[in-house]
Design brief:
Layout (H helix, E strand, L loop, with lengths): L2 H14 L3 E3 L23 H4 L9 E9 L16 E9 L5 H13 L11 E5 L4 H11 L6 E3 L4 E2 L4 E12 L21 E14 L5 E14 H8 L12 H11 L7 H22 L8 H19 L11 H8 L5 H4 L1 H35 L4 E2 L1 H11 L3 H10 L3 E2 L1 H28 L1 H6 L8 H8 L3
Parallel strand pairs: 1-2, 4-5, 10-11
Antiparallel strand pairs: 2-3, 3-9, 4-7, 6-7, 7-8, 8-9
Helix pairs in contact: 3-4, 6-7, 7-8, 7-11, 8-11, 11-12, 12-14
The chain binds adenosine-5'-triphosphate and magnesium ion (MG) (3 copies).
């Protein structure tokens, strides 16, 4: 089943259950300074959940484009994580609750009319105190107790505001993916034999200012399922990257680089990371985020640079990312016409940014050559920590890249000095953050201006560059 069919089935199924389909909102949150990116299907619907806006129909379903940069370290390593992905969701704003949510989830997953998973392969997790959910799974659905795992962390709570227990559905991918005697293979473990496909959140409490919890008068349902994960199961492939959502991009990149996918582990990671990042960058640019040195623009700049570096792993020394834009459009245009309509613009922005980065790289190399020269003149064979940090901070050179280039000149780099310079910068950033947080306490319009970057890719950039 093609991914576009799965998406269409989702929407059709929930439409048949009386839901109104909301189109995907842009990746940039509207009127929500607490979020850098839309990171879940529920995020653009917050005004309904907190009562600011009353929806015409309390039943809503969507397929929402999402960005989660906190998963960046996982991309290319796990079978299931992306920085950009689609979350399929169904929502009840103070109307239906656990029984309908669970019953419909089961129907959609197991009925041959919909996606028809083998029911014997499904397991769920519940919050230990949520006996209601446990009983629905056992009595209403007939799921054997041994396939229900009670997990303390199944409680969705982000501080003050609505919160509640959740139940998550896992698909057992079989022996090929892990041995059941290993607890890491069980739902919630590190192994991906049991693939988490769907999270059903029951927001039934209010987390009060004083830390207490009181029942909400209007209970809500908020669910999210990963389209790419459904596709990997339904297409019977190893990972999300082997589905029709990613393969055209991966194959095109492999062709450009003259390599073959699935022949070399290191190349495969690079191909996956590039395919992931180009989707994130193309969609963000399409939604009006331009590469820059702060906030969202900075996230996009770092992702693009990261993709360029992984390109180097494949031996790509010239700009190529922008040529993948049309493929992203071909794959995603059915549901997200913006990537097709804005293709030329997206392509141009990516191309300019990519070319500029190649220049930055060569500028950095020139500076490095001067540093080597300076060290030599001083009778040293070591590039100093502060110098290596300047290359990192100003030219985007990760430590290992500097180290590799230095090694070519018979030099080493002062790691401890680099780490210290990095630490000093972190301390400075922390001080700066404290100031912003104190601004928040003061409230007022200034507080709304502070959008914290959640980009966490630095350490991985260093790892990524090791092989460059
Ligand atoms: P995981 O444990 O696999 O990281 P999660 O528990 O963080 O997932 P949720 O916040 O529950 O994910 O999101 C709901 C659903 O969205 C998940 O069940 C999964 O199908 C999908 N999903 C979440 N994060 C990602 C991601 N980074 N890439 C692809 N799909 C994702
Ligand atoms: Mg996660
Ligand atoms: Mg999870
Ligand atoms: Mg989850």
């Amino acid at each position: 089943m093609k991914a576009s069919e799965i998406r269409a089935k989702w929407l059709k199924f929930f439409e048949s259950k009386g839901h109104t389909i909301e189109p995907s909102a842009p990746l940039v949150p509207h009127n929500d300074p607490s979020l850098l990116w839309i990171n879940a299907g529920m995020a653009p619907l917050k005004p309904y959940f907190d009562g600011r806006v009353v929806p015409e129909n309390p039943r809503i379903a969507n397929s929402q484009k999402c960005i989660r940069t906190n998963d960046i370290e996982n991309v290319g390593k796990t079978r299931r994580h992306h920085t950009f992905f689609e979350m399929l969701g169904n929502f009840s704003i103070g109307e239906y609750f656990k029984e309908e949510a669970i019953t419909w989830a089961w129907e959609f997953l197991t009925s041959p009319d919909w996606i028809g998973f083998d029911p014997n392969r499904l397991s769920v997790t519940v919050y230990p105190e949520d006996t209601e959910a446990f009983e629905l799974w056992t009595k209403k659905i007939g799921l054997p107790e041994e396939r229900i795992y009670k997990l303390q962390e199944n409680f969705w709570d982000i501080g003050e505001g609505p919160c509640g227990p959740c139940t998550e559905i896992f698909y057992d991918r079989g022996d090929k993916y892990g041995d059941l005697s290993d607890p890491e293979c069980w739902p919630g473990g590190e192994n991906e034999r049991f693939l988490e496909v769907w999270n059903l959140v029951f927001s039934q409490f209010n987390h009060n200012k004083d830390g207490s919890y009181t029942p909400l008068p209007n209970k809500n349902i908020d669910t999210g399922a990963g389209l790419e994960r459904f596709a990997s199961i339904l297409q019977d492939v190893d990972s999300n990257f082997d589905t029709d959502l990613f393969q055209p991009i991966i194959q095109k990149t492999a062709q450009l680089a003259g390599v073959t996918y699935k022949q070399n582990e290191e190349y495969d990671v690079a191909l996956k990371v590039i395919a992931d990042h180009i989707r994130t960058v193309a969609f963000s640019v399409g939604d009006g985020v331009l590469p820059s040195n702060e906030g969202r623009g900075y996230v996009i700049r770092r992702l693009l640079r990261r993709a360029v570096r992984y390109g180097k792993v494949l031996g790509m020394d010239k700009s190529f990312l922008y040529t993948l834009t049309p493929i992203v459009g071909e794959v995603m245009g059915v549901y997200y016409p913006e990537v097709v309509e804005k293709r030329e613009f997206i392509e141009k922005i990516i191309r300019i940014e990519e070319e500029r980065f190649h220049e930055t790289l060569s500028d950095g190399l020139a500076i490095l050559a001067e540093m080597v020269e300076k060290a030599r003149n001083e009778g040293s064979t070591v590039i100093s920590g502060p110098d290596a940090f300047k290359l990192y901070d100003t030219y985007g050179f990760p430590f290992d890249l500097t180290e590799d280039f230095a090694a070519e000149k018979g030099m080493t780099v002062d790691r401890a000095g680099f780490d210290q310079a990095m630490q000093e910068q972190r301390d400075r950033a922390r001080e700066a953050r404290k100031e912003t947080d104190s601004m928040k306490v003061q409230g007022g319009p200034l507080a709304d201006l502070t959008v914290k970057s959640e980009f966490v890719g630095y350490t991985d950039l260093v790892t990524a560059a090791k092989v460059i």
